[in-house]
Amino acid sequence: MAWVEHRHADAAALADALAATLHRQCERALVERGKALLALAGGRTPFPAYRALAASDLDWSRVTAMPTDERCVPHDHAACNLRGLREAMAGARGLTLQALTTRDGNPDASQAAARAMLAHHPDAFDVVVLGMGEDGHTASLFPGAPQLDAALDPARADGAVRVDPDPLPPEAPFARISLTASRLLHARCIILALTGHAKRAVLEQALADADPRRHPVAAILHAPSATVHVHWSP
């Protein structure tokens, strides 16, 4: 396990640092490999960084991004992460955004579609940006979900799994499609971005207790081959 902490004065400073890191990693990928592949969390914390990144000077025609996880809702639904990413990254002309769900959000069809899409993108992600909930979930790897063990299985090669949170979050009571832990860890740079003292306390618990069934984010934090850059602000 290796993790590097980056503390910021506030959420705006965190967003600035995250945007700079994303830009730097994309530039490096374009120089070294001619393309960049990103997996991006939804949520309030990283979206200002995505907007800043989209306004930067990159050859976006060679960049592909996808959500780390998605709610099984239609693509025009307010809860759709793809919709949020599309709006935040609107300035990135030429960027390819890949969906983890079908247009109607059917969970089983979406799982099959996500796996087929990922088969066309077998390379390591250049950057993975993750968030974390106060229950210790990351992406849509929720504690207590019946599919959690499958999603955490390091031998899984299909890359994505349907997740039914139990209980369903009242603010977003939907089935999900999530990248698996092994697919998230197949990355050159892993970033965990979070704000607030409540989430800081959960982070400390996950660092002290490696059981991912209690805090699924521990599967990322304690992965032996990964270095996780934790960006935190009050």
Automatic annotation (TrEMBL):
Residues 10-222 form the Glucosamine/galactosamine-6-phosphate isomerase domain. Its EC number is 3.1.1.31. Coiled coil: none annotated. InterPro entries: 6-phosphogluconolactonase_DevB (IPR005900), 6PGL (IPR039104), Glc/Gal-6P_isomerase (IPR006148), NagB/RpiA_transferase-like (IPR037171). The keyword Hydrolase applies. Belongs to the glucosamine/galactosamine-6-phosphate isomerase family. 6-phosphogluconolactonase subfamily. This is 6-phosphogluconolactonase. It comes from Novilysobacter selenitireducens. The lineage of its organism: Bacteria, Pseudomonadati, Pseudomonadota, Gammaproteobacteria, Lysobacterales.
